[in-house]
Amino acid sequence: MTSAERVGVVGTGLIGTSIAMAAIRAGDAVRGFDVSAEVLERAAARSGLAPARSLEECVRGATLVFVCTPIPSLAELAVRALAAAPEAVVSDVGSVKGTVTAEVVRRADPADLGRFVGGHPMGGSERSGPDRASASVLDGVVWVLSPTPGTDPSALERLEAWTRRIGASPVRMEAERHDRLVAVVSHLPQVASTALMGLAAAEEAGEPQMLLLAAGGFRDLTRLAASSPRLWADILLANREEVAGALERYAARLLELRELILQGRGVEVEEAFAHAKAARLALAAKPQVKAGVAVLQVPIPDRPGVLGELTAALGAAEVNIEDLQIVHSPEGGRGTVHLTVAASAAEDAERVLRERWFEPLRLA
Predict the structure, then answer these.
(1) What pLDDT digit, counting tens, does each position of 48-88 carry?
(2) Helix or strand or coil: residue 145?
């Protein structure tokens, strides 16, 4: 069994506090520091971490340190942590790895660089702050680890072992490759969501009833627009070249689809939707069920306990839920649950839900 670590968390927002909670759940001792005393107090109350009065106090004696601050300060604080915690493996959690890693390499004492590993846990939400933190934020998430050429293999292996111990899945990846991939699957969705919400808000100026017509699809697509503006400005500017390239390719696909629609080429429009649907269904499934999944749409009343009834019914029938989304009606009083289950379990899921007076509709 891996021995307990002494963990320092610098920056106690959503991710930092979630890391603290996951570490404490795994039996580690955790100290935390934040430049905001009020945020640190809330994080300590939420997680049970021991608050420190400075970064140096936070990381003194630590064996693992996670720097969880906004991107502009990550490199500086990682360098300070390396110097103040000579026994610790130090990592960051930034959404961009290339610029942060290069800055750490440039500024740190070369003797300390063997203990630095860039990192990025692919978890979180559009909400921020320690009050939204939970150890479950990291359960099962991919945790990218981007070592530098000078990283000591033992430091990387130690961090990998720790991320597995708290329930995450470590993946080694070069910083440049990470930034190229997240530009498409993380940064571009944020930009698209923000742009769509901005367009709707501008159009609403002349059509005040527009957003009353917004259904589940619009709400799903614009959820990310509620994210922290400052956080995302920092992320996008730090990865500007890769984000710009992803935007160009996305815009080209939109224009291709626009031309197909304008020209009335229905077969090709349908093919574009079919390819995207197949890819989305594959994404929704865990590797062991990628042979096929089914999506069930289930209307539910908006009352306490109804979701528990639904999941309990499926659990009793030993039907595993691969994915679950809830769409609330803008009028209130009702909503819709979209359930993804293995295709082989779809009939059992439909049967047991109907027995409990739900009315599932199979979409795929």
Answers:
(1) 999 999 999 999 999 999 999 999 999 999 999 999 999 99
(2) strand
Q: Which CATH class is domain 6-172?
A: alpha beta
Distance CA 323, CA 308 (A): 15
**Tens-digit pLDDT profile for residues 143-186:** 999 999 999 999 999 999 999 999 999 999 999 999 999 999 99
Cα 247-249-251 angle, rounded to 5 deg:
65
Provide the CATH number for the domain formed by 283-362 in this structure: 3.30.70.260
What the block records as the tokens of 209 is 């009833």
Which residue pairs from 189-197 have beta carbons closer than 8 angstroms and sit at least 24 positions apart in sequence?
A: 189/224, 190/224, 190/227, 190/232, 190/235, 190/236, 191/236, 191/243, 191/247, 192/221, 192/250, 193/221, 193/222, 193/223, 193/224, 193/225, 194/224, 194/225, 194/232, 196/221, 196/222, 196/225, 197/222, 197/225
Model pTM score: 0.78
Question: What are the structure tokens assigned to 111, written together?
Answer: 């003797």
Which CATH code of 1.10.10.10, 3.10.129.10, 3.90.180.10, 1.10.3660.10 fits the domain covering 179-264? 1.10.3660.10
Give the model confidence (pLDDT) of 284-335 as tens digits: 555 544 457 788 888 888 788 888 899 999 998 899 888 887 776 554 567 7
